[in-house]
């Protein structure tokens, strides 16, 4: 089988591709694609994949934009960090997903069921945008649905709506020596990745290690207050002290407190500039 992995988190992409490559019947891999634009280019160039592993939040927008730009005729399995609001949307619409970090056994089960369905699926018309592998549904003897236009529209609407305020994280428990400290989210300036570690930068200039990936944090925090500037930085608007035009249509952000000098300029990629401006100008 030929698989296309669409994932903008390098660690998550490496883990998934590694698991796929060491599977008993290894898949031939396309990508990974890190953005909607890259995924569209790969899908248009061909060959067509047999299965699509699709993250939701990509560098330049929601992965659902793929369905608006190119016809997808293969089964789709969404990959997502734990997010109660997103999972409710998947379950309500009977859409299959794998939770990150992806469990090898669950991935093998999904692939086994997918292989069983592919011979019959080759004679079907996956017209609107493909059928969806649903290992949980099959395990419960429920008919596997197709990802038709109505299902896709409902899913997009639910996931684009703001999650209930109560679902956003209010504070973080961090370790300071032998002690535990509670940091209210109002005291968080930004989060950043450094040498495979995620750190919380507080407004009073202190740094704390947190046991979350950047992607998981993005799903836990109020999107009206925090923005993913790039792979390494997730910042509160109040911490963005200045914004400067940079080369190649990018933007440079000046954060307060200042990040480590060794990290270089904190840039907003060209693909995210328009979304970033809309976020600021709401």
UniProtKB/TrEMBL annotation:
Residues 2-115 form the Response regulatory domain. SUPFAM superfamilies: CheY-like. The keyword ATP-binding does not apply. Gene3D superfamilies: 3.40.50.2300, LytTr DNA-binding domain. The keyword Phosphoprotein applies. Pfam families: LytTR, Response_reg. Coiled coil: none annotated. GO terms for cellular component: cytosol; protein-DNA complex. The modification 4-aspartylphosphate is found at residue 55. GO terms for molecular function: phosphorelay response regulator activity; transcription cis-regulatory region binding. Keywords: DNA-binding, Phosphoprotein. Residues 172-282 form the HTH LytTR-type domain. One of its GO terms (biological process) is regulation of DNA-templated transcription. PANTHER family: REGULATOR OF RPOS, RESPONSE REGULATOR RECEIVER. This is Response regulator transcription factor. It comes from Hymenobacter setariae.
């Amino acid at each position: 089988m030929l698989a296309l992995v669409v994932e903008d988190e390098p660690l998550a992409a490496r883990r998934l591709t590694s698991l796929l490559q060491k599977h008993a019947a290894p898949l031939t891999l396309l990508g990974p694609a890190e953005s909607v634009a890259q995924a569209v280019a790969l899908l248009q160039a061909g060959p067509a994949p047999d299965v699509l592993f699709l993250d939701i939040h990509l560098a330049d927008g929601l992965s659902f934009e793929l369905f608006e730009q190119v016809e997808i005729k293969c089964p789709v399995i969404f990959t997502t960090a734990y997010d109660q609001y997103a999972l409710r949307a998947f379950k309500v619409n009977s859409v299959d997903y794998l939770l990150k970090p992806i469990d090898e056994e669950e991935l093998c089960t999904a692939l086994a069921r997918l292989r069983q369905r592919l011979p019959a699926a080759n004679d079907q018309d996956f017209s609107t945008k493909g059928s969806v592998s649903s290992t949980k549904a099959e395990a419960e003897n429920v008919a596997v649905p197709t990802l038709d236009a109505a299902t896709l529209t409902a899913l997009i609407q639910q996931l684009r709506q703001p999650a209930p305020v109560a679902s956003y994280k209010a504070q973080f428990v961090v370790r300071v020596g032998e002690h535990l400290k509670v940091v209210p989210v109002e005291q968080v300036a930004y989060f950043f990745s450094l040498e495979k570690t995620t750190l919380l930068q507080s407004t009073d200039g202190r740094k704390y290690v947190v046991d979350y990936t950047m992607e998981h944090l993005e799903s836990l925090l109020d999107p009206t207050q925090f923005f993913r500037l790039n792979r390494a930085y997730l910042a509160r608007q109040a911490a963005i002290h200045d914004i400067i035009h940079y080369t190649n249509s990018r933007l440079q952000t000046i954060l307060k407190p200042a990040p480590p000098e060794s990290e270089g300029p904190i840039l907003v990629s060209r693909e995210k500039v328009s979304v970033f401006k809309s976020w600021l100008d709401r």
